[in-house]
């Protein structure tokens, strides 16, 4: 019996049958589908792509210019919403649901997830991104990718990399130091690539340190070589600035591509001028063919899904993601006997998603006011404000008149559609003036006042200390209306926690002076200190911290035990629900390196887990810590190294909750030494190395003298200079040292001791 050739074997056979013109055509995509290629080989077909991260945006006609003329599908909560669930299992299930819908719609790949970090709260696309933290982002994105791809649908991880703003995103040059690049922005992508194994990665428009992302060496050096990515690398729309250089660095597909004649001519010219080799061309084409053949295998799995079931799941995601920010005097939950005044146009015209490529035509949109009235017949409504208009005092006065005879006021506030969208950044963090004026006026009445927010990202709340309750519903998708109602009335216990910091005002943000940059570049001057890493480092008060979220019950964290060695790093605690109702809590573990010399090290989220407990129930919770939190990216050796020394480790319910804390001491194998490391750092990171240095310097008395001055630890005697000297500096100061002797010394010092070095 003949064995069916593997996909890779088939790809090799197909490539051998193609001429250069045909290969060139396989590098282009036509809008939402690849070029028609079945006339090349009957085993090939078009593969179809669709947005997005909050549901399927499938155009009714693929060449329609109206991006909102789409088929109805489930509109799930925005990524900024469901990231606040901190629930990896839930996000995996979300991916599964979206994958099932993609199967029915004949979509082969979903252009999701989008995981750029929220460097600035002004980012116009922040509603589409997960978090300001790379650890939380990478964990949730990995779960999402695995969920989608479990259904045979490809996931496209985007936008690689540093697509952290919309302003001039198609040409802006991001200037970022190497340590920040690796420890923040690339780290968010690493686990989703290595573990999630997406079928596709999309490059971003911007430049990174002078090179456009679609042709940046990072594609080859990091994505391909270090992380082992074997899939398709596709450009964002019209982002292939240098196709030859891009293909040489690992790019395989340009979107939407160029006319057939143009790309064929371009590829032939690149080959003939030796700017591109035929091997590089074949590698790119082969990856596209493998992707296509793999997609064909899944066509037989097409099946229908239950729309109502998916709508109900969208509600579940929203319910677990909304964040209770304030609940003074237990004003919430509401009850069915209260006379409640609901205020705000957003209660009748909900804002449930962001604008741009993630926009979804909802299957069934719920209206918050209608859902609230299902739970309480004593609800009245007052408009209070008009979206996109100025303050109307007559509307505010109407609210006050109605409020006089009610028990409690619930205001629906938020950002209008035009404020948050792909294509532009926000100008400020303010709610519209008419909403702030309304809330401020109502807060003076002495009535209990609850504010429900609908926004995709951070907003300032100048009135927060004057209201009793605040529910951050974010953009809750098509079922957000019932989710809000269920939380307000206590049918659901809120369990969302913020995946981003809420500063008191925009000027407090570390990127304030460097966002969005000038006409040509943007300088990431804040370095590694974005979001909570900055606020905690400088002890800056925030409105609501990263990781924060309230519940209708109480939890107690106790009995912290850590296990840190080469094989495993865990933190175990006992968690008790001390309240009177069941609830879910997010257990968060943070670490901070204490033995710093010079600039402080940022606080890091090391691990997390969401736990559900019944009243008075206690569970032992073990959390595996990300080994990366005990490492730094060493720009001298251009690799990750473990950082020896003392760390504070604490467990709590936000980045500010360090009540359960311990100190751990990391003693790792020796860090790799180069001629550009100074003696002070060498000894600090490798306390056991002094005797070896003393031995190798026996033939070099002057260098030995510098070393001994460091041991004396007498600044007046050593002038503090010895510890600053590198081996290269010693070579210039000590005539007995030359390049060969330095190389020999490094060989001795690094002998078998750099096994811990990371990719």
Précis, in short:
With 759 residues, this protein is an alpha/beta fold. It folds into four domains: 9-301, Alpha-Beta Barrel (TIM Barrel), CATH 3.20.20; 307-521, Rossmann fold; 555-666, Immunoglobulins (Immunoglobulin-like, Sandwich), CATH 2.60.40.10; 679-749, no CATH class. It holds the Pfam family Fn3-like.
Question: Per CATH, which architecture of the largest domain?
Answer: Alpha-Beta Barrel
CATH fold description of the largest domain: TIM Barrel
The tally of beta strands, per DSSP, is 28
By CATH reckoning, the class of the largest domain would read Alpha Beta
Mean pLDDT: 92
Structural class by SSE content: alpha/beta
Q: What gap, in angstroms, lies between the N and C termini? A: 44 Å
Secondary structure: helix percent: 25-40%
Number of domains: 4
Beta strand %: 15-25%
Low-confidence stretches: 754-759
Q: Which sheet architecture does the biggest sheet show?
A: 6 strands, mixed
- SS summary, helix count: 22
Q: What's the shape?
A: globular
CATH fourth-tier homologous superfamily of the largest domain: Glycoside hydrolase, family 3, N-terminal domain
Instruction: Tell me the Rg in angstroms.
Output: 28 Å
Query: Taking strands numbered 1, 2, ... along the chain, how are they ordered across the largest sheet?
Result: 11-16-15-14-12-13
Protein name: Glycoside hydrolase family 3 C-terminal domain-containing protein
GO biological process, one term: carbohydrate metabolic process
Domain Fibronectin type III-like: 585-655
Family: Belongs to the glycosyl hydrolase 3 family.
């Amino acid at each position: 019996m003949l064995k069916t050739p593997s996909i890779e074997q088939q790809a090799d056979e197909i490539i051998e049958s193609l001429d250069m013109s045909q290969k060139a055509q396989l590098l282009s995509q036509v809008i939402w589908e690849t070029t028609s290629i079945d006339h090349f080989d009957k085993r090939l077909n078009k593969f179809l792509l669709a947005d997005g991260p909050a549901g399927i945006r499938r155009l009714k006609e693929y060449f329609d210019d109206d991006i909102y003329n789409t088929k109805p599908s489930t509109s799930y909560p925005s990524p900024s919403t469901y990231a606040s669930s901190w629930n990896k299992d839930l996000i995996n299930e979300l991916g599964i649901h979206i994958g099932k819908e993609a199967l029915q719609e004949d979509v082969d790949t979903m252009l999701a997830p989008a995981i750029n970090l929220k460097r600035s709260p002004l980012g116009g696309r922040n509603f589409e991104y997960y978090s300001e933290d790379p650890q939380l982002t990478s964990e949730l994105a990995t779960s999402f990718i695995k969920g989608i791809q479990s259904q045979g649908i490809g996931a496209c991880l985007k936008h690689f990399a540093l697509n952290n703003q919309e302003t001039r995103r198609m040409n802006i040059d991001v200037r970022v130091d190497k340590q920040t690049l690796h420890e923040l922005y690339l780290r968010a992508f690493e686990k989703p690539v290595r573990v999630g194994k997406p079928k596709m990665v999309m490059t971003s428009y911007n430049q990174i340190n002078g090179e456009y992302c679609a042709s940046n060496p990072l594609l080859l050096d990091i994505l391909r070589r270090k992380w082992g990515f074997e899939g398709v690398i596709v450009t964002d729309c019209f982002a292939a600035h240098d196709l030859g250089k891009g293909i040489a660095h690992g790019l395989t597909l340009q979107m939407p591509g160029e006319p057939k004649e143009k790309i064929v001519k371009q590829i032939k010219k690149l080959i003939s001028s030796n700017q591109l080799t035929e091997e590089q061309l074949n590698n790119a084409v082969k990856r596209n063919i493998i992707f296509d053949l793999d997609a064909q295998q899944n066509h037989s799995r097409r099946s229908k899904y239950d729309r109502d079931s998916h709508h109900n799941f969208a509600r579940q995601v929203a319910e677990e993601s909304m964040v209770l920010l304030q609940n003074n005097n237990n004003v919430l939950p509401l009850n069915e006997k209260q006379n409640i005044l609901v205020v705000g146009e957003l209660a009748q015209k909900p804002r449930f998603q962001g604008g741009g490529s993630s926009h979804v035509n909802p299957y069934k949109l719920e209206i918050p006011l209608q859902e609230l009235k299902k739970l309480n017949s004593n609800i009245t409504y007052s408009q209070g404000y008009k979206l996109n208009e100025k303050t109307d005092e007559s509307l505010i006065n109407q609210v006050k008149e109605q409020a006089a005879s009610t028990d409690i006021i619930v205001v629906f506030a938020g950002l209008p559609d035009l404020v948050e969208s792909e294509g532009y950044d926000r100008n400020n963090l303010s709610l519209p003036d008419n909403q702030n004026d309304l809330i401020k006026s109502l807060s003076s009445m002495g009535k209990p006042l609850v504010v429900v927010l609908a926004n995709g990202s951070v907003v300032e709340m100048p009135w927060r200390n004057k209201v009793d309750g605040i529910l951050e519903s974010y953009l809750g998708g098509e079922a957000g209306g019932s989710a809000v109602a269920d939380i307000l009335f206590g049918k659901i216990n809120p369990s969302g926690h913020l995946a981003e910091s809420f500063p008191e005002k925009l000027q407090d943000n570390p990127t304030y002076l460097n966002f969005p940059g000038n006409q040509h570049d943007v300088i990431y001057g804040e370095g590694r200190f974005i979001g909570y890493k900055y606020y905690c480092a400088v002890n800056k008060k925030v409105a609501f911290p990263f990781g924060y979220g309230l519940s209708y019950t109480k939890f107690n964290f106790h009995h912290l035990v850590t296990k840190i060695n080469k094989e495993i790093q865990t933190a175990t605690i006992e968690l008790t629900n001390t309240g009177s109702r069941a609830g879910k809590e997010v257990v968060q573990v943070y670490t901070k390196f204490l033995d710093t010399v010079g600039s402080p090290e940022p606080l890091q989220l090391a691990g997390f887990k969401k736990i559900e407990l019944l009243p008075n129930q206690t569970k032992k919770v073990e959390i595996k810590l990300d080994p990366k939190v005990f490492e730094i990216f060493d720009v001298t050796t251009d690799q990750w190294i473990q950082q020896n020394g003392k760390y504070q480790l604490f467990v709590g319910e936000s980045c500010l909750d360090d009540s359960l804390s311990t100190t751990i001491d990391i003693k790792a194998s020796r860090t790799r030494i180069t001629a550009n490391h100074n003696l002070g750092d060498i000894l600090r990171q490798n306390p056991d190395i002094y005797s070896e240095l003393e031995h190798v310097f026996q033939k070099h008395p002057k260098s030995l003298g510098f070393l001994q001055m460091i041991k004396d630890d007498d600044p007046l005697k050593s002038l503090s200079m010895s510890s600053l000297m590198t081996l290269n500096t010693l070579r210039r100061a000590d005539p007995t040292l030359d390049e060969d002797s330095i190389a020999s010394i490094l060989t001795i010092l690094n002998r078998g001791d750099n096994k811990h070095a990371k990719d």
